[in-house]
Amino acid sequence: MHVESDFIRLDRVEKVFQVRRKTGFLRSERREVRAVDSISCTVARGEMVGYIGPNGAGKSTTIKMLTGILTPSGGRLRVAGIDPTRERTRLAHRIGVVFGQRTTLWWDLPLIDSYRLMHRMYRIPDARYRENLDRCVELLDLGGLLDVPVRQLSLGQRMRGDIAAALLHDPDVLYLDEPTIGLDVISKARVREFLRDLNAERGTTVLLTTHDLQDIEQVCRRVMVIDHGRLMYDGPLAGLHEAGESERTLVVDLERELPPVEVAPARVVKVEGPRQWLAFPASESAAPLVARIAEAYPLVDLSVREPDIETVIAKMYADRRETSVGGRQTSVDGRQTSVGGRETSADRREMSADRRKATADRAGRPGGMVS
Amino acid sequence: MGTGRLYAAVAAGGFRRYATYRAATAAGVFTNTVFGLILAYTYIALWDEKPHLGGYDQAQALTYVWVAQALLAVMSILGGGFENELVERIRTGDVAVDLYRPVDLQLWWLAGELGRAAFQLLGRGVVPLVFGALFFELALPGEALVWLVFLGAVLLGLVVGFAIRYLVALWAFWLMDGMGAAQLAGLCGIFFSGMLLPLNVFPGALGEIARLLPWSALLQKPADVLLGEADPLGTFAFQGAWAMVLLAAGRLLQTAATRKVVIQGG
């Protein structure tokens, strides 16, 4: 029997892909791509862990190794004491997987048909199946959808349908790869709430990869940040702020246009008419700062902006690039992110490209038969 | 036991998936009937000119036409089976979803394909054959046993057809676009199954070879069983042998493909 504290265990796990690139007519060059580079960590039973990183960081590769459909090139990997690639089928009964951009449901048929299939596929005892289905239907609000063909479901409905499909066989672990991608605010909230309940009531271990940091903020207590295949941070969400040396922003409205306010340790990062933006370390308290400004300047209004986690992480990536590459471009980028209070424009582009990909995937899915 | 129920559920799903597209089915029946009429009059002209061509009399030749139309969609000789979907799933990487399930990929698709064929036998097979029998003089057998043997030959033909297309579809793991291979195999299927002309009328060595190729198991063999032109046991042995060889080859290729994905990534 495995120990509960290392329910999932990775020991210096690596995944190297051979990529062949054409360099000329009939000539090609082999190149190694290290998608996952010596990652070690453990996840205890019942933990909810967020796994984040930019596109191509190695998130999906890790998930695929954890399901057994990819073999690690090196290192050791165990899930519930099982070696995933060796005993993929046995492991399949213990895990549930939801790929946000793919569906496990039968496209042409009513939702309930896919569930009946799961019933047989995982050999779920009848009573258990009915109980789990009823519960999912209630909590994921699927009541009116069971008889609707999957192709007619909205993305949010389909995602809830997919999550239910992954849970009918009572898996110990649930992997979710981008479960909220492309969903609207209400659907996202619903999925997150369901995951929290699932974890609280059943003790299901949840491993979640996402681009949406609110997923992490609202669902996970622990977060792992990966970039270029390396684990850059592993710990509680709150610790990320310190690790990223983040700053809070104080926005002050003065009576009139004035030269930049001078109050240590804050520094003015932006001035727009009578409004000024001051950045100060997140570890400092805002109260004395406000008091000193109010003393010396005609203060009308103010607000404090918490550093959002996206900014913190973007800064982390930028710092890493700065140290490893040392390019001027990245250091400029890094400055921008630490100040802007929002994601960088590069990040935004990445996100929207991802969304476009999701839409294209959906449009390209075979809609049925060609006869 | 449990596995049997799973694949039965997959087959039932395959049946229902196709049953949802009623308009497509009706259009298909109409097309098959029109094709059947055109071919029937062509064959009448041909057999008037050359009676007993390929060993068939005119009634047998006309029966062949309508059996071919009845089996066209069932055997997906012109495409429309599972293969497009499988190729697409491989291309988009959706096949990853299939791989983490506790099921056998080949059996999974075979079960779905048999479900689809069962629907098309009822939905698209019966009407053209009945239409042909009403408006032409056909050589259909009276004994129920012959019909039963015919259904057995159709089932085995389906398995052979599946095994061929499964092999072709799996090449998509290596080729960027698997559709070219599928189309080439489709052309072979149309020609060598006997869909254009019965293989009996192919001359000399070409006929000999065509009758030995696996595609003849799809249409020529079941039709010959129905027409009383072939020995049922010999036919079953021929089809069964091809089915086993091709399924085994598919399994080998599947192992190689899975390993490639597992080692190399999607």
TrEMBL record, chain A:
Keywords: Antibiotic resistance, ATP-binding, Nucleotide-binding, Transport
MF-aspect GO terms: ATP binding; ATP hydrolysis activity
InterPro entries registered for this protein in UniProt: AAA+_ATPase, ABC_transporter-like_ATP-bd, ABC_transporter_ATP-binding, P-loop_NTPase
Coiled-coil positions: none
Topology in membrane: Peripheral membrane protein
Basic and acidic residues: bias regions: 344-364
Region (Disordered): 322-371
Residue intervals of the ABC transporter domain: 8-253
Subcellular location: Cell membrane
Comp. bias regions, Polar residues: 326-339
Alphabetized PROSITE patterns for the sequence: ABC_TRANSPORTER_2 (PS50893)
Descriptive protein name: ABC transporter ATP-binding protein
Origin species: Streptomyces poonensis
Automatic annotation (TrEMBL), chain B:
Transmembrane feature ranges: 21-44, 64-82, 121-140, 146-172, 184-206, 236-253
Keywords from the UniProt entry: Membrane, Transmembrane, Transmembrane helix
UniProt KW Coiled coil keyword: no
Entries under InterPro entries matching the protein: ABC-2_transporter-like (IPR010390)
Domain of life, source organism: Bacteria
PANTHER family tied to this protein: INTEGRAL MEMBRANE PROTEIN (PTHR36832:SF2), SLR1174 PROTEIN-RELATED (PTHR36832)
Protein name: ABC transporter permease
